[in-house]
Design goal:
about 300 residues; alpha+beta; Immunoglobulin-like; 4-stranded antiparallel sheet; 4 helices; 15 strands
């Protein structure tokens, strides 16, 4: 009979030593290959969310790019504290994988098929979509635009179309950023953002990004049961603000407010861009304390904002 400790892992790292699970060594290897060896537990988690964003979005964008009949995910949430195989964590916090999957599952979606280096647009609705414009920009590590291209297109219902090839700026910048937009006139139907290097190569140079302070404002509304926040984040710098994470905490204890709904999270802003994100949570989850907003990210100077 198998000992009880083999049936319910405390966490994935524990599982390595108790029944030689290969998952975490492979996961750690990918973190090291892509972003460099973690310097601490906090750095490990920071880099893990980068991998989570990329891998979850890639799974659904593969489906979009090939218009397959479906995809089965194992699994959307693990039954113990973990960093992989989950869209929200053991404590009900949506992870970067959740927002990567959400982006990849857009009904109208523009994407970069990096395997063949083609920008594609997918229409998963039941209606034809006409008079669209697909646009792509490439920025170097310093946030300077080095390439731009656009094209006009129509998309039949439940179809995908190649737009154009992407020009990789490897000579100018080993690590670069890709910004995509699918629009009809001035209406943005889909936008997307990537960081990359050589095909599947190291993005460790992202550590060279300058640390940025982002002006942030919070407007609060709601009722006696629900608090709603409108959080506006702006990047006034010349660089790229990468993987911005918003986090609502209790002002006294510093504990996270959970469960919680973020319209978006782990998003990035180019120079001059701003974004307003809605956040919603039950007043009861404050446990009698006031809320406070924490802002952090890959290269973001962390700060906390008191909310009246």
């Amino acid at each position: 009979m198998m000992p009880a400790e083999y049936l319910w892992p405390i966490n994935d790292m524990w599982a390595i030593h108790n029944y030689q699970s290969p998952r975490m060594p492979l996961y750690t290897k990918r973190i090291e290959q892509r972003y460099g060896a973690p310097a601490s537990i906090e750095d490990y988690c920071r880099k893990a969310q980068m991998v989570n964003m990329e891998s979850a979005k890639a799974m659904y964008e593969c489906l979009q790019a090939n218009q397959g009949s479906g995809i089965l995910i194992w699994m959307t949430q693990s039954a113990w504290p973990s960093l992989i195989c989950q869209l929200y964590d053991y404590y009900f916090e949506p992870t970067a994988a959740y927002f990567g999957a959400k982006k990849g599952c857009e009904p109208l979606h523009i994407l970069w098929d990096s395997n063949i280096n083609i920008i594609k647009a997918a229409n998963n609705t039941v209606s034809d979509q006409a008079d669209l414009t697909a646009e792509a920009w490439v920025y170097d590590l310093e946030g300077k635009e080095v390439w731009h291209k656009s094209t006009q297109l129509n998309l039949l219902a439940t179809s995908v179309k190649d737009c154009f090839a992407l020009e990789r700026p490897i000579a100018q910048s080993p690590v670069f950023f890709v910004k995509l937009k699918l629009r009809r006139g001035d209406q943005i139907l889909s936008d997307n953002f990537y960081w990359s290097s050589g095909k599947g190569g190291s993005c460790a140079d992202l550590e060279k990004l300058p640390r940025l302070a982002l002006p942030t404002t919070v407007a609060k509304s709601g009722d006696k049961w629900t608090d709603r926040l409108a959080v506006k984040v702006t990047n006034p710098s010349q660089g790229v603000a990468l993987m911005i994470r918003l986090k609502v905490i209790r002002a006294g204890s510093g504990e996270r407010v959970l469960p919680i709904l973020y319209e978006d999270n782990y998003f990035s802003l180019l120079s001059g861009e701003s974004r307003t994100v809605s956040v919603e949570f039950a007043v009861a989850n404050l446990a009698g304390e006031l809320p406070k907003l924490a802002v952090e990210g890959w290269n973001i100077l962390p700060k906390e904002i008191s909310i009246p």
